[in-house]
TrEMBL record, chain A:
It comes from the Bacteria. The keyword Transmembrane applies. The chain crosses the membrane at residues 32-53. Keywords: Membrane, Transmembrane, Transmembrane helix. This is Uncharacterized protein. Residues 1-18 have a biased composition (Basic and acidic residues). The keyword Transmembrane helix applies. Residues 1-21, 67-112 are annotated as: Disordered.
Automatic annotation (TrEMBL), chain B:
NCBIfam families: cyoE_ctaB (TIGR01473), PRK04375.1-2 (NF003349). This is Protoheme IX farnesyltransferase. Keywords: Cell membrane, Heme biosynthesis, Membrane, Transferase, Transmembrane, Transmembrane helix. It comes from Hyphomonas jannaschiana VP2. Belongs to the UbiA prenyltransferase family. Protoheme IX farnesyltransferase subfamily.
Length: 112, 317
């Protein structure tokens, strides 16, 4: 142990730089502005991410919506040489959706 | 016993000093021309940008301009100290240390380019990065101290904002965007030389080879007139491409006549000569101030036409 109370190889931390009150106040002001600037940057990055994500969701839903709409409203292109009459479904086939009626099986009453 | 010499009181930078470092007056003009490019692109192509993204893109242009200003002040602090006009800037006055100025400039450059990329596309971000490099390195570090054509070539840096605004909306830079570039490019020499005619002794003292220092005031006045004639022709090009309509044509036509009137009067005067009469010096100052109004009104006419639905094209191909 040396005179200054340090073990061999140990070093004392350098003393903190002394700042006068004006310098300290200026440093605090700068730190505050830096903090606000960083906060602003994080906010802007968050905002752009949010706007991009939400607009891409819109695009995606629009895409599917439009695809479904297209499927319902526009008939597919006919092969060459086929007239629209030929493309019509046969008269004995209905274009109405088939509704399966529920078959109710009445249970016979057990013989007594 | 003698009194100790009084040491000057140390100044600590205020928020205002840091704002000055960003050259706010140049920033305003840069932002305005970028907004004009953005609105004109929307009007011409019909492509739109999310309003929030457009606002962030404009903010990115403002930050980029400020970053370039801080880098310029960092590098030029030695000559700023010599010239009276610039000796009160934050670095020569001791309010902001040089290291802080360059750190601020570099960080803001990165932030502005990143924000532009996030808000729009890589082309606009790349153009913004290049314009910062153009002003901070090509103009400030190389051209300014080496050639009397410094502000002619360096003017390209200030001409990029409308192209950046256009690219942010459309993702490309067609001829119309480069016409807006050319207007600002050819506007810069008569604008800046009008100021340097008044301050050429300061530039001489600092060793900056401005045209009035190297070639004299008479040659500068002639160059100002020639560039104003070229500007007048270029500024009417939007009528041919359909970018500008009737309102733009009338406003720019009148402004061109006024700008040419100033240029001819300055050319015939002795502004910038040793012992020039006060009226001649005042004329150069008037031309400098008018040039700011000129650029503002030319771009304002474009904004009004495309933003208010008053765009009635004269021609177009």
């Amino acid at each position: 142990m040396s005179d200054d109370g340090l073990k061999p190889g140990e070093e004392r931390f350098p003393e903190q730089a002394h700042l006068d009150p004006a310098a300290r106040a200026a440093q605090k002001r700068r730190n505050l502005w830096l903090g606000l600037a960083l906060l602003g940057f994080v906010f802007l990055v968050g905002l752009t991410t949010f706007v991009r994500l939400s607009s891409s969701e819109d695009n995606q839903s629009n895409f599917y919506y439009n695809m479904n709409q297209t499927g319902q409203q526009q008939a597919p292109e006919l092969p060459p040489g086929m007239s629209p009459e030929q493309a019509e479904p046969p008269a004995n086939l209905s274009t109405e959706p088939v509704v399966h009626e529920e078959v109710v099986v009445e249970e016979e009453a057990p013989e007594q | 016993m003698t009194d100790a010499p009084a040491t000057p009181e140390k100044r600590y930078g205020t928020a205002g000093d840091y704002v000055q470092l960003l050259k706010p007056r140049i920033m305003m003009l840069v932002v305005f021309t970028a907004v004009a490019g953005l609105i004109a692109a929307t009007g011409v192509t019909g492509q739109t940008m999310h309003p929030m993204m457009a606002a962030i893109a404009v903010l990115a242009v403002a930050l980029g301009s400020g970053a370039a200003g801080a880098i310029n002040m960092w590098y030029d602090s030695d000559i700023d100290q010599v010239m009276t006009r610039t000796s009160t800037r934050p670095i020569p006055s001791g309010a902001v240390p040089r290291e802080e100025a360059i750190a601020m400039g570099m960080i803001m450059s990165g932030v502005s380019v990143l924000l532009m990329w996030l808000a729009s596309n890589w082309l606009a971000a790349g153009l913004l990065a290049f314009s910062i490099f153009y002003y901070g390195v090509i103009y400030t570090m190389w051209l300014k101290r080496s050639t009397p054509q410094n502000i002619v070539i360096g003017g390209g840096a200030g001409a990029f904002p409308p192209v950046i605004g256009w690219a942010a909306v459309t993702g490309n830079t067609p001829l119309d965007a480069w016409i807006l570039f050319a207007i600002t490019f050819f506007w810069t020499p008569p604008h800046f030389w009008a100021l340097s005619l008044l301050a050429h002794s300061e530039y001489e003292k600092a060793g900056v080879p401005m045209l009035p220092v190297t070639h004299g005031a008479k040659a500068t006045r002639l160059q100002m007139l020639l560039y104003t004639i070229v500007l007048a022709a270029i500024s009417m090009a939007p009528l041919a491409t359909g970018l500008g309509g009737w309102i733009y044509g009338v406003v720019t036509g009148v402004l061109n006549l006024a700008f040419l009137y100033y240029a001819v009067r300055v050319w015939r005067s002795h502004a910038g000569d040793a012992g020039a009469p006060g009226a001649d010096q005042k004329l150069a100052r008037s031309m400098f101030l008018f040039s700011i109004l000129y650029l503002f009104l030319v771009f304002a006419a474009l904004i009004v036409e495309h933003a208010a639905g008053l765009h009635f094209p004269v021609g177009g191909f």
